Fold this sequence. Notes:
Blueprint: H1 3-8, E1 11-15, E2 22-23, E3 31-33, E4 36-37, H2 52-55, E5 64-68, E6 86-89, H3 100-103, H4 105-113, E7 119-124, H5 133-136, E8 142-147, H6 153-159, H7 166-178, E9 182-190, H8 197-204, E10 210-215, H9 220-233, H10 238-244, H11 251-265, E11 270-272
Parallel strand pairs: 1-5, 3-6, 6-7, 7-8, 8-9, 9-10, 10-11
Antiparallel strand pairs: 2-3, 4-5
Amino acid sequence: MNINKYHSMMKIKEIKAKSIIIKSGLPEGDFVINPYTGCMHGCKYCYARLMKRFTGHTEPWGSFVDVKINAPDLIPEDTNKYKNKSIAISSVTDPYQPIERKYKLTRKILEKLIPLQPHLDLLTKSDLVIRDIDLFKQFKDCIIALSFSVLDEKIRKELEPLASSVDKRINALKELHKTGIHTALFISPILPEITDWKALINETKSFVDEYWFENLNLYPSIKEEVYRFLRKNKPKSILKYKGIYAKDSDYWDIEENKIKEFCRKTNINYRIYFHHKRKEK
């Protein structure tokens, strides 16, 4: 892939946000910050593409980013409101997507958050995260998570065109761990017949403090993208997927139990964020 050509096709727009620290709708966490709207990574399975309906964007997901240029200015300088509360960065974008190298919004936001001392929970697919180790070390309570679901770089490129390579993400986890920062590996999404979560754990357990697991949820907004990927890369798996996402399938219940059993036996700290209620009909 010609990365420069891909960048030139990206629609970048600078906007001013009305607010930046938003009450969280996540299962865990009090507040969330998203420095950008949209994401350059263009992941085929990304649930955040549903954000298009709230932004007025008609471009394909992965081809636009709105840069909230005033985001750092919206963080209050002196308040106890967020002390001992959790702030997650980010939920519907990647705080270290390629454009962060230019705008440094995430870094500026972190600088503004340090005096407020929230519990910081940051998630990314980029090794650019290690740039801000000096800032993470100034939080009394933080966890930095990198997300990936495959070790095969060829498959990774198909699924996540502009995200960092698997090796770079693994090295980022090593660097973070080396400096004493609490690390997590978010194995997400777990793709049936593609994601080998045991291999991911065995490859990284010496420098990862905890593991988070999320199954692939075939939202209507991503379903066709996922099947297009399968037709190209894993055509024999299509029938299996149709069975897994059939109304009465118990596949994910079984998989969740396997993960729990494995983690308990091997003393792995884990969190499971499985979707059970929304199954394909």
